[in-house]
Amino acid sequence: MISDEQINQLDSLIQEYYKSGYCPNQETLINTWMKNPTYFSACVEILENPNSSTNLTHFVLTSLKSLISIICSKWGPNEFYSFIEKVLKVLFEQIHRFNNNFLLSTFCSMFSYSFFLGFRVIPDFKIQENFIQAFLNSSFQIHHYAIIQIFTSIIETMKNNKIYYQNRISDFKDNLLLYFFKVGIQFLTDYDFKNAEIKPINNQNIINDASENIDDFSKKAQIDNKENFLQLMNATVFDLLRFCLTFECDSDQDNSMICLSENWNDLLKILIFRIPEIFDTCLGLEGDFHKKAYEFIFCITSLRIPKDIFLDFSNSLVYNMNHLFTLNPIENDLDFIEEITNLILKIQLATSLNYSFPIYKDFIKNIYNFTLQLLNPNLLENGFSALFPLVKFWELYSSNYPKKVKKVHTISQHLLNVLYELSMKPNILSKLDFLEISQLSLFIYTLGKNKEMEIIENIKQKEELDKEKEKLDQIVKKKNLYKQKLLESNIEILEDENNNRNFPDIENEHFDQRLHNSQENDDLNSNNYEKTEENVDTYYSKINEILQTKLNIFLEFPNNLQNEQQLAMSALIVSSPIVRKFDYFNHYSYISIVYILRLFEFTKELTKTASHELIELIILFIIKQIERNPIYFDKALRCLDDKIYCTPIKRGEQLHSYLLGRVLHIAKFYPSDSPIIDQVFSNILCFFSLKLNDESITFMEEEFLENFLYVKKMQLRPNRKANFFQPKTWKMINHINFHKFVGSMINTLSTKTDVYYSTLESHFLPYLKDIKERLEKSTSINQVIPLLLDLIGLFRGSEGPYSYNLFFNLYFDCIIKVKQLSIIPNNDEAKNENIQINPNFVFYYVKLFSEITNNTNNRISFHEHSSNGLKLFIESASFLIFIFEYIPRNIDAVSSLLKYIFRVLTNLLSNDYSCIGALLVYNDETLYKLLHHYLSFIHDTNIQNLSCFPKLFYESARFTYFLLKLFFNQVIQTDITYILTILIAFSFINESHNDLTILVSLDVIDIISKYCILHINDDVGKGLILGISNYLSIYVGNCLTIFLKRPKLLHENVLNIFLNIFQLGVISPDSFEDEFRIIYDLTANENIHKIIHCILNKSCA
Description:
single chain; mainly alpha; Importin N-terminal domain-containing protein; nucleus; protein transport
C-alpha cells in the first residue's frame, strides 16, 4: 500500500514533469511506474484516491495502460472483471474528476485497451451491463457523456486491432457492437436522456492543474449550460453510431457500401425513422459538432438498406435534404461546403432517384441553385475540392438523362466563366491546383460534347418529323382526289368500312393532332437547333481566339511569368481527357503547351479552324522551352505519342524528327556537366518505344552522327579521313548513358531490314572501331577508364544476340590485354610480396565484367562450336582470383567493389555459357581456385557488416544461394566455418532490407537446413547444427518480426522452411509462439494453418 507521503512526492515530481517536459529522474520514473508490474496496485490506489491531482491521475492512467499489457497474459476472467469493475466504479462515483476531455479521453483509452486485451485473451468476454446501466440511468448527463465516450473508444480500439482477433470479429460485431449501437439509438429516441437535469458538479482543480493540457474541445466539454452540453452530447452520440456502422470500413469517407447482418434490421428501421430528427439536430449544431452531424448522415447513405424500407429511406433522405437547403442557405455553411457536396453525391448514388416525382424534381432544382451559388470566384479562390462531388453529380445526371442537359450546360458555361475569370488574377493562380483545373476542364469538354449530341438528336428528330409530315400530306391529297372523282361521276359514296380502311378520315382527331404536333415541333426544334449550334460555334471560336492571342503574347514576351500562368490556365480550361492518363507537371508554361497539343487531337471542332501556322508556333514554343530548361524534355516524351508526332507542319518534316533533331543540336553545345546531358541521354531511348517510321529512324541516325560522333561533317563519308570523331570530355555517368544509347540504337537497327543493317555498318562500325583503336593504344589508367565506361554503356544497351556478339568479338581480347593496368608499378625487388592494385581501375574493370557476363534477355548465345563461353568464364574467374588475393579484408572499404564482384560470380554460376559441367568433369583448377580464394577472403573479412549495405547484402545472398546449390559438399570440405560466417551475417537481417533480399536469404537457409536434416546423425552434421543454432534462432526471430509487418511475404514455402529449421531440434518453437499465433490469425489459408499447428504442437516428424 502506498503512503500519502509517497503520493505527495510522486505528485510533485509529476507536476514538474508535466510543466517542463523533463525531470531529473525521468527514466527511472518511466521504468518503474510504466514497466514494472509490481507498481500496478499502487497505480490503482492513486486512481481511487479522490484527492489525486489531474496530472497525477493522467500519469497513473497512462501507466495502467502500459502495465496491463504486460501482466494480462497471467490474468484470468476474474482479474479482468475485477479491474474493469473497479475503474468503472471510480469513474461513476468521482465523475467530477473527469469533467474535462484531457482526463476522460485518457481514461477511455486505458479502459478500451484493457477491454481489448480481455476480449483477446478470454473467450466469451463481455461487458458488465450492471455498471453500464448505472451510467445510463443516472440523472447526471456527464455520466451519459462518459459512457458514450467509453463505447466509442472501445470500438475505435477494436477496429485498429482487428488483426489480433480475426477469428472472433463476427462475435464482436453481432453482440457487443450491436449492443453499443442499440444504446446509441436509445439516445436518439428516448427523450428522458436528453431532458435529464443538470446538477451542480464540483469543478475545482480541473483547469488549474492542467491548463496547458486542455485543448479547446475539452473546454467545450465543461458543463456550463444545458444548451451547450446538449450539442456536445448529440455530436458524441453521432460519433458512436458512425463508429458502429463504419467498423469494417477502411476510412470514414470510404464510398463502399456498409453491409450489416439481419440482426441489425430492426435498429436500422428505427434509425431511418429518425432521419428527420437527425437533420433537425444537424441544423441546431455549431462548429465541429455540425461537421460530425454531416459525417454521420454521410455514413447513413452508405448503408445497404433492406428492400422493404428502401423507398421510405430514399424519400426521407431527399425530402430532408430539400428541407435543409430551404432553411440553411449556403452563406450559413461556408465552412462545411465540402461535406455538403460529398453528401449530395452520396445521396444520388445511394437512392433510386426518380426525377418524375415532385420531391426529386425539387431536389434537382435545389442542387442546381446550390451549384450556381457555389460557382462564385470568391468562394473558389482557395481550391475546387468542394466542387468535384457536384461535377460528378451532374455528370451522372447528364448520362442518365441525356435529353435534359439545359441545366448542365448552364453550369458548364458558368464554370468556364469562373475559370477564365480566375485565370486573369495572377495573385490567385499560385493558390490553385492545376490538376484540379484540368479535371474541371474535362467536365466542360464532356458537356460540350453532350450538347453536340443534343444538336445531332434535334436534327434527326426534325428529319423524321419532315418525313412524317410529307407522308401525311400525300395521304390527304390522295383522299381528296378520290372524293373529287366520285362527285364528278355522280356515284353514291357508300360508307363502307372496307373502302375506308386504307385512307384515314380527314376529320380524324388523332391525325389532326399528329399534324399539328409536327408543325409545332418543327418550329420549336428549328429555333433550338439554330440557338444551340450558335452556342457551340461561339464556344469553340472563343477558345481558339483565347489560345491564339495568348500564344502570340507569350511568344512576344517569353520571360513574363504572368503571361506563362495565364496561358497555362487558358490551355487547361479547354484541355482534353488526357489529364486522366498522365501526371500533371509543375512548370506552368510547359503544361499549357502539352495540353494544347492534346487539344488538337481530341477537339475536332478546334482542329478544323486551327491553321498550320498556329501548330508551328506551338512546336517552336516547345523548342524554346527545351532550350531554356531541357529537363522538361523527359516529360514531353511521356506525353507526346505517335499520333501527335505525325502532325504535319509547314516545313514538311514530321514533328518527332524535327523535335529530336533540334534537341540533339541544342545538346551538342552544352558542356558535359550540364543537366541537359544527363536528361537527354537518360531519356532519348523513349523514342524507340514509339512507332517510328523508316524516315524518322534515318533522320534520327543522321542527326545523332552529325551532332555527336563527328567533329566536321557536311555529308556522311565514313571511308574518308575527313571524318574525325569528337574528343569530347564526358562526365563518368555520361559515358555510360551516351554509349548505352549507341548500343540500344545498334541493337534496334540490327533487328530491322537489310537496309538498316547496311546503315549500321556504314554509320556506326567506324565509331566502334575507333573505340577499339584507342583502347589498344592506351597506356595509362586515365586513358583507359573513360573507354571502359564507353564499353559498359555499349554492353548495357545491347539487348539482343547480334549486338552482344558484335561487341564481344570486337572488344573482348582488348579488354583482357589492359587488365595489366590493375597493378600499380613497383620498383621494389620483392615484387610479389608488395603488389598493390589500382582501386579505380579494378572497380570499373569489374563493373564492365558484370555487364559482359550478364545474360539479360538470353542475349549471350555463342555458336555451338565456339569456345567464347569458356573463355569468358576463365578470364573472369582468373581476374577475380587475383582480386581476392590483393584487395583489403575490410568490407567497409570495398563494399562498392564487392557488389559487382558478387554480380560477376552469380552470373558465372547461374548461366549455361560458363560450361560448369565440363569444368567439373575435367577438374579444372580455375574453378576450384576461385572457390578457394573466395572462401579464404570471406573467412578473413568482417562479413557481419553486410547488413549495413542492403544492395551488397542482396548480391551476396544471391551468390551464396547458387554456390551452396551447386557446391555445398565442396564448401563443407574446404571451410565448414563459411556456413557459420554466412549465418552470422544473415542474423543481422532487418526491416531495411527489401522483400527480395529476405526471400533469397530464406532460400539459402533452406539449403542449409535440408543438408543438416540429411546429415543429422553424422559428426559433420551434428557439429554444423550445434555451431549455427544460436545465430539460426536470431535469424528466425528477425524474420518473424519482419513478416508481422509485411504479411504479404507469408506463404507455404516460407513456413515449410521454418518447419525444417525446427525439425533440427536446436530451436524451440515455444520461443516464437506469440508470433506464430498472430500469423495464424492474419491468414485464412488452411495449409498455412496446418503448418503452424504442426510447428506449435512439435509434431514436425
